[in-house]
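pipeline stage [seq->struct] | target=C4-dicarboxylate ABC transporter | organism=Turicimonas muris | residues=447
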Amino acid sequence: MIWIGLAIVVVTFWLIYKNYEARLVLCLSGIVMALIGQYVCGSNVTLSTAVDAFIKQLVNGGLVPTIVTVMGFGYVMTFTKCSDHLVNSLVKPLKYVPAIVIPGAVLITWVLNIVLPSAAGIAAAVGVLLVPALIALKVRPVMAASAVFAGTWGSVVSPGLMFNPQIADIAFKAKEIGAPDAMIVIMQEFLPCAIGALVVAAVLALICMFLKEGVGSTQLSSAGDALEGGLAEETKKDFKVNPIYAVVPVVPLVLLVLASKQVGVLPTKVFSVPVCMLIGTAIGLMVAIINKQKIGDCSKRFCRGAGDGFCDVVILIAAAALFAAGMKSIGLTGALVDSMKGSQSVAMFAAAAGPFVMAAISGSGNAAALAFNEAITPHAADFGLTIVQLGAVAQIAAGLGRTMSPVAGGVIILAGLAGVNPMEIAKRTAIPVIVALVVTTFCMFMF
């Protein structure tokens, strides 16, 4: 039965790699394994148990409110153009310091991806400004796109990313932490990830120097001139950044940091992630009124974002829970845990390598990381690790793996903006993210 379970898992991830609907594939695979476990193996984890695991995630009080409010807030920031003010305020200064444009582009994208936790969304928002600006400084188009793409994993330390609330919920249930608070997870992983971001920026800058693709390395071709005249039009316009509007997207993050247990300036129980996101949304509604936008339309955008968050994120987490229950039913989870118990290094390697490779191949490591966290992360203590350590490494690895995938949504957007092949961008980000994976994983497990 273990080999049958492994075969089903392999087929599952192959189908996801082939772009079949991930939620459907995970659910069907989980159901098949649960049925085999119930009627062939006599497992006490039945189909009914697996379905219950799915339903529990749909009404998870620590998970659902966080995800839907973050997504709703993000949609409001886009509607009010507060995100445009933030992006412009950070991007424009790079034009005046050519020596740091490549590492600066990486780090700016990484920081903005924390506030706007969508890799494809941040690639579009930042890329439409930065790619033409870098090309105007005679950076080769492929390196301009690579610099932005290399920063599209900042969401790994965002409270809006699905994994951080999930890990916090698992750790809380195991009594590892006192509350299902995503900020507890983020505070532990932030420094290793920040070091990883610096590593990515530095290594890509070295590659840029070696390949001679930086500032002044090329003359604008007719295609480049067209790009500069077309896509850079937004940067040529006298876009007046309103510093107040630029600060609005950051307000919830500031409140969350101040309310974290490590800082403790604000009461943690009061300023939860949903509360902070709703405060930010309320400020966004005021911005809409000031700009004479229809407040009803702004409200609809929040509801649409919340709905998309439930559809795209919460149901995916629920499907991963059903899949994990199926693995447990057929005996695969127990076998994997037993195989890892003999070596802490095996568990550490599996957490980093599995989601990383899956994300690099498929362009999305969500399914792999979610399944790993549901099935293996709760057993972290058996390997001499904490749940936060093991779960965080899995989701960080997924984010980094996606940042070297030639089929990720972000790289396809950036390739279109720069007029280059996505594979050429992935080639340039591969070494930086692999180095960052090693460094970040080491920092997470050793400190």
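stage status: PASS
auto-comment: Residues 11 and 108 are 38 Å apart (CA to CA). The chain is about 75% helix and 0% strand.
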